Amino acid sequence: MRENVVIRTVSRLAVPFIQLFGLYVIAHGASGPGGGFQGGVAFAAAFILMIIAFGIADVRKRINNRGIMIFSIFGIALYAAVGLLSILYAGNFLQLNVIEAALGIPHLHGILIDIAEAGIGITVMAIMISIIYDMADTGGESA
Amino acid sequence: MSIMEQLPVLLIIGPIIAALIILAAGWHDRRLCYPVMLLSITGQFIASLVLLLQVIQDGTIRYYLGGWAPPLGIELVIDSFSGFILSTIMLLALLAIVYARRSVEAEVPAEKIVSFYVLVQLLIIGLVGMTITGDVFNLYVFLEISSIATYTLIAGTRSPRSYVAGFNYLIMGSIAAGFILLGIGYLYVATGTLNMAEIAMLLPASYELSTVHAAFLFLMIGFSIKAAFFPLHLWLPDAYTESPSAVTVIISTVMAKVSVYAMIRILFTIFTTAYIIESFPVTEFILLIATIAIVAGAILAIAQNDLKRMLAYSSISQIGYIMFAVGVANQIALEGGLLHILGHAMMKGCLFMVAGLIIYRMGTSNMLELRGVAGTMPISCAAFALAGASMIGIPPTIGFMSKYYLVLGAFEAGYWLYAAVLLIGSLLAAGYIWRFIEIAYFGDHHHKGDQTTTPEGPISMIAPMVCLALLCLILGIFVEMPMEIIGPAAMILLGGI
After folding, report:
1. Are B16 and A76 inside 8 Å of each other by CB?
2. Which of A84, A87, A92 sits opposite B64 (nearest CB)?
3. Which residue, B389, B423, B432, B191, is CA-closest to B294?
4. Shortest Cα–Cα distance, A95 to chain B (Å)
C-alpha cells in the first residue's frame, strides 16, 4: 500500500480535476444547478482521495485543525457579511438588489450571491475534511 | 428606525456571528469566551423585549428575508404569542448563562469549555429561530440546529453516564426530527407551500385527505417526543439528570418550552381549531393523555431519590398541564396554559438551579445524603421552598394563577372530572416537593458539610436563582402584567385576530 505507484499517480492526476470541478459547481450556483454545499463537498472529496492515497499525516501537513477552524469561520463570516451588506444599503437581510440599485453595477446581485456561495463552499469543505479527520483518526492527537 | 426594522433577523444573525467570535476567541484565550457569550445573550434579551413592546403597540411584525414576500420567500413572524415565548426564553437563557459560569467551570472539562459555550450559543440561536420563524421548513432547520447542540451538550460532563443519556436522546430526537420532516413533507404535498399562514389558508380544502391526517399525526408524534409528552418522555429523565447543571437549567426551561410552543403553533396556527376539534377530533384524546401525564409524572417523581431526577419527572407532569390547556382548547384554559409555560419555566429553572448549587457545594444530589442541608444552604432551600410552593400551586404564586385559569377553563368546557385530576396533580406535587423540604429542613444534621459562615455558593449562581424565585411570587401577585400579552396570544391561537 505504502509504495503503490498506480494509486499515487492516478490520485495525483485526479485531484486537480476534482478540485476544479468543485470550484465550477460553486461558481455555477447562481445561474445553474449546483451551489456552495455541493461544490464544497466535491472539493473536500479531493482531500479524501489524498488521505486514501498518501495517508492522513501527509494531508494534515497541508491543512491542519487550525486551518480547518479558520476556513470554517471565514466561510460563514463571508456569507453573513454579504447578507449584512444589504442591511447597510437599507434593504432586508440578503436583499441584494438594493445594493445593485445603489451602486448601479449591472449583475452585481449575481456576483454577490456567488461570493455568498463561495462562503458556504469554504465552510462545507472545511467541515467535511474535519469529519474525515475525526473518522480516520485512531485516537491520539485530535482537536 | 432602520435598525428597528432589521431587529428580527439581527436576533438570529448577531448571535451566529457571536458564536464565531467565541470560537475564534477561545482559540486565543479560553477566558474570553464567557464575556462574549454574556454580551450576545444580553443583546438578544434586550432585542426580544424591544420586539415584544413593539408587538404590543403596533401588532404583528413580519420580516421578509431577502425582501422576497411569501409564499416565495421565508418570513419571520413575531405576533403576541411568539413575542411572549421569545422574551420568556431569552429571560431564562440570560439567567441560565449568568448561572452557568461557575457551574460549568466545576463540571465541564477545561478543554471542552470553548465548544461548550459555542454549542450553548447555537442552541439558543436554534430555539430563537424556531420561535420567530413563519415557515415550517425553516422551523425544522432550526429544530435540528438546537437538537444537535443539545445532544452534545448533554454529553458534556466527565461521567460516562452522560454519554449514554446524550446518545439515547440522539436516537429519540432523530426519530422525532424524522417524523417532523415527514409531516412537513406531507403538508407540502397537500398544499404546495411551506409558509405557515399560507398552509393554514389552503389546508381547509383538503381536510378530508388522508395525506393531511398523516401529516398531522407525524407532526404530533414528533413534537410530543421533543416536548416529552407523557408516553414519549423516556429520554427526558436521563438527559436532565446526567447533563451538566447549567445545561439542565437551559434545556428544562428554554428548550422544553420551545418544543411545546412549536407543537401549539402547529396545532392551532397551521391546523387551526376547525381541524383539531371538528374535522379530526383529537383534543379529547390530548386531554386524556395530558391528565395521565400529570398523574403519572407526579407519582414517578415521588418515587425518586435523586433530586435532579425527581425534578425531571416533575417536568413530565408539568408538560401535562400545558397540554391540558391544549386539550380543553378554550380561551381561559389556553391563557392558563400559556401562563403555565412562563410560570413553569421560572419555577423549574429555579429548582434546577438549586439542585445544581447543591451539587456544586455538597457534591451529591442524592436526597438521602442531604439531610439538614438547609442549615448549610439557607438561601437555596428558601428559594426551593418558594419555587416549590409555586409548583404545588399555593396562592399567591404564579403556579396558583395558571392552575386557577386551567380549572376555570375546564369548568367552562364542562370537564368536571378532568378539573378534579388537576387538583389531584397538585396534591401529588405537594408530595414530592414536601419530601425534599422535609429532608432539607427537618432531617437530622449529620452530614459532613461544615457549618461555618462561609457563603453557600458564588454570588453569580445565587443571584439568578433568587431572582427566579422572587419572580414566581411577584408575577403571581401582579398577574395582569403577563396576562396583557397572553390574552391576545390565546385569542390568535383560537383564530380571532
Report:
1. yes
2. A92
3. B423
4. 4
Over 50: is that where the pLDDT of A143 sits? Answer: no
pLDDT of residue B95: 92
B142 inside 8 A of chain A by CB? no
Tell me whether the omega of the peptide bond preceding residue B71 falls within 30 degrees of 0, making it cis. yes
pLDDT tens profile A38-88: 999 999 999 989 888 888 888 888 888 888 888 999 999 999 888 888 888
Distances (CA, A) of B297 to B37, B241, B312, B313: 35, 15, 9, 5
Residue A113 has pLDDT above 50, yes or no: yes
- How many independent structural domains does chain A possess? 1
pTM of the full structure: 0.90
Phi and psi at residue B243, to the nearest 5°: -75, 160
Residue B13 touches partner A, C-beta closer than 8 Å: yes
Residue of A nearest to B13 (CA): A80
CB contact under 8 Å between B67 and A77, yes or no, is no
Residues of chain A with a CB closer than 8 angstroms to some CB in chain B: 66, 69, 73, 76-77, 80, 83-84, 87, 90-98
SS3 of residue B414 by DSSP: coil
The answer to whether residue B4 neighbours chain A at the CB level (below 8 Å) is: no
The C-alpha atoms of residue B120 and residue B286 are separated, in whole angstroms, by 32
In 3-state terms chain B splits into helix, strand, coil percentages (rounded to 5) of 80, 5, 15
Closest in B27, B64, B66 to A69, CB measured: B27
Cβ atoms of residues A98 and A86 within 8 Å:
yes
A114 pLDDT higher than 80: yes
Q: Which of B20, B22, B141 to mutate to test the interface with A (most CBs of A within 10 A)?
A: B20
pLDDT at residue A140 tops 80:
no
B234 at A interface, C-beta within 8 A? no
Provide CB contacts within 8 A for A62, sequence distance 6+.
none
Q: Report if residue A141 sits inside a domain.
A: no
Burial readout A9-36 (b: 16 or more C-beta within 10 A, e: otherwise): eebeeebeebbeebeebbbbbbeeebbb
Regions of chain B with pLDDT less than 70: 1-2, 445-454, 496-497
Question: Quick check: B335 and B411 in contact, CB under 8 A?
Answer: no
CA distance B331 to B413: 10
CA–CA min distance B2, chain A (Å): 7
| Per-residue pLDDT at B178 | 93
Q: Residue A78 falls within a domain, yes or no?
A: yes
* Domain of residue A14, residue span: 5-136
Chain B residue nearest residue A73, CA to CA: B20
pLDDT tens, residue by residue, B444-468: 765 555 555 567 778 888 889 999 9
Evaluate if residue A142 carries a pLDDT over 50. Answer: no
Using the beta-carbon criterion (under 8 Å), do B13 and A80 form an inter-chain contact?
yes
Contacts of A87 in chain B (CB under 8 A): 2, 6, 9
Look up cell 446524550; give the residue. B166
Q: Which residue has the cell 383564530?
A: B495
Mention every residue, 6+ apart, whose C-beta is less than 8 A from residue B14. B40, B43, B44, B47
User: Where are the domains positioned within chain B?
Assistant: 300-497
Digit-coded pLDDT (tens) for B34-48: 888 899 999 999 999
Neighbours of A57 (CB within 10 A): 8
User: Is A93 in Cβ contact with B6 (below 8 Å)?
Assistant: yes
